[in-house]
Specification:
Layout: H1 2-25, E1 43-48, H2 52-66, E2 70-75, H3 81-84, H4 86-93, E3 97-100, H5 102-110, H6 118-123, H7 133-142, E4 149-150, E5 158-162, H8 163-168, H9 180-187, E6 203-204, H10 208-218, H11 236-251, E7 254-255, H12 262-268, E8 278-281, H13 284-295, E9 304-307, E10 317-318, E11 326-328, H14 336-346, H15 349-355, E12 375-376, E13 379-380, E14 388-389, H16 392-403, H17 407-423, H18 429-451
Parallel strand pairs: 1-2, 1-3, 6-7, 10-14
Antiparallel strand pairs: 3-11, 4-11, 5-8, 5-9, 12-13
Length: 455
């Protein structure tokens, strides 16, 4: 009898301990001891997303195959509601899962409006060892020290180079962590003479204004403070960017080729056709190189090298990095486990196998996944994961876009106009820099005046 009483007491104590552990793992909201225990029961997952059809095509259909007993309810607010005010949309619709741009991830994390994922990761012994470590660190940093979300796709870039051209012209091949200035100096070591349709180019780019933006993003520069609307386009760092872009254009090392679609895209690309030494690109370029082998008549493949870069001045990070959707769980979500299963799947090995499957019609391989793989299309991918991403400039530019979608377009237009005059010798770099600053500030002042409350 005493033995039975003792057994019952021990069971009660064990139950209390388990409840306590659960509470510690998820303060303010208890999480079931095993996420998979809901696998056989019907459950609901309410998702906040901009378009139901797009969600199902990209995520919903795949997830339903993995979890057929989960009923997905997509909340798709009309207009721009979810984009401009995620906090308000979460309060209105009470979703279990949201996909956030970095700006809103940062804001909601700061306000403690999201579930900390690390206790769930620990509870389920979820493997994060092959997740892009630099991205995890950046998501924690933007989350104020806690991991409130995961992003399956990382729009990262690397420096692709034609090793055969480097050997032919006796130029030292690129190394990991090179800055834009070093890359452009390397490009100048290749010949600049010859017909533009047959000559060799040092670097494939898309014009001075685009190069300016690429360099600025890499170094984490922004042209305006989104809070004060004060232009910041005339700093020493910005002036150096204008100088690099204008000098590179003037030197004739840049192939300012404009992309076309289909077969013309392959045959018009100097890099794909082996006539450009370098190109900064995503893994979609690897697909194009493979497609050229079978899609272009008499195509001559070349030895491809891939280096991590371009890097910021610290040689370890880059701001030229984008993520569009960070998967997160609102703090008051009713179905945390269902949302966590969704996040686990789309950041896991099973989804990676599906995503990288050849001729997968559901996905265009334009960005590598945060779940790292060793190679794709026969090429090693480690260079795409070596640099630490910095989302600060991306977050600032998003805030500016919300102020006015035309800001960046206007800025690019002014940069192109002014640098063209510098390249043609009609204006000094100092005067062009002053003009860019003045024009940018004028646009900001016009916006402030339009948004000022009328008296």
């Amino acid at each position: 009898m005493k033995h039975n009483v003792l057994q019952k007491a021990m069971l009660v104590s064990l139950s209390v301990m388990l409840i306590g552990i659960s509470a510690v793992l998820s303060p303010g909201k208890q999480v079931s001891a095993n996420a998979d225990s809901e696998g056989d029961a019907k459950r609901t997952l309410k998702v906040l997303y901009w378009n139901e059809d797009d969600f199902n095509m990209t995520y919903g259909d795949l997830f339903s195959k993995k979890y057929p007993n989960t009923n997905i309810e997509v909340v798709a607010p009309s207009g721009m509601e979810a984009i401009k005010d995620y906090n308000g949309a979460i309060q209105k619709y009470s979703p279990d899962l949201v996909m956030l741009p970095p700006y809103h991830y940062q804001q909601l994390s700061k306000d403690k409006k999201l579930v900390d994922l690390e206790p769930l990761i620990k509870r389920d012994t979820y493997d994060t060892t092959t997740l892009y470590p630099g991205l995890l660190d950046e998501l924690k940093e933007q989350g104020g020290g806690k991991l409130y979300g995961l992003s399956p796709k990382t729009d990262s870039y690397a420096l692709l180079y034609n090793a055969d051209l480097f050997k032919k012209y006796n130029v030292k091949v690129p190394s990991d962590g090179m800055t834009w200035e070093e890359i452009l100096n390397l490009a100048k070591k290749f010949p600049t003479k010859g017909d533009k349709n047959s000559r060799i180019w040092g670097l494939s780019s898309f014009g001075s204004s685009n190069l300016v933006m690429d360099i600025a993003r890499t170094e984490g520069l922004t042209y305006m403070d989104p809070n004060t609307l004060k232009a910041t386009a005339n700093t020493t760092a910005w002036k150096n960017v204008y100088r690099l872009a204008s000098e590179a254009t003037k030197s004739g090392v840049l192939d300012e080729w404009i992309s076309l679609s289909g077969k013309n895209y392959l045959e018009s690309s100097s890099f794909i056709m082996g006539r450009s030494a370098m190109k900064v690109a995503s893994i979609s370029q690897l697909q194009s190189l493979q497609a050229a082998k079978s899609g272009v008549k008499n195509y001559k493949p070349f030895t491809l090298g891939i280096a991590a870069g371009p890097a910021a001045k610290d040689r370890e990070s880059t701001g030229n990095f984008f993520i569009n959707e960070i998967f997160a769980i609102p703090a008051d979500a009713a179905h945390v486990d269902a949302a966590w299963d969704f996040i686990k799947y789309f950041n896991g090995d099973d989804y990676a196998a599906e995503y990288y499957k050849p001729n997968n019609s559901n996905n265009s391989i334009g960005a590598p996944l945060s779940r790292m793989i060793k190679e794709y299309s026969g090429y090693k991918l480690d260079a795409f994961y070596k640099l630490k991403p910095n989302l600060d400039s991306s977050i600032t530019n998003y805030a500016l876009m919300n102020k006015s979608p035309n800001f960046e377009l206007r800025f690019r237009s002014v940069v192109l106009k002014e640098l063209t005059q510098v390249i043609n010798g009609k204006k000094t770099l100092d005067k062009a820099t002053a003009a860019i600053q003045s024009s940018t500030q004028a646009a900001a002042d016009k916006l402030k005046k339009a948004q000022a409350p009328k008296k």
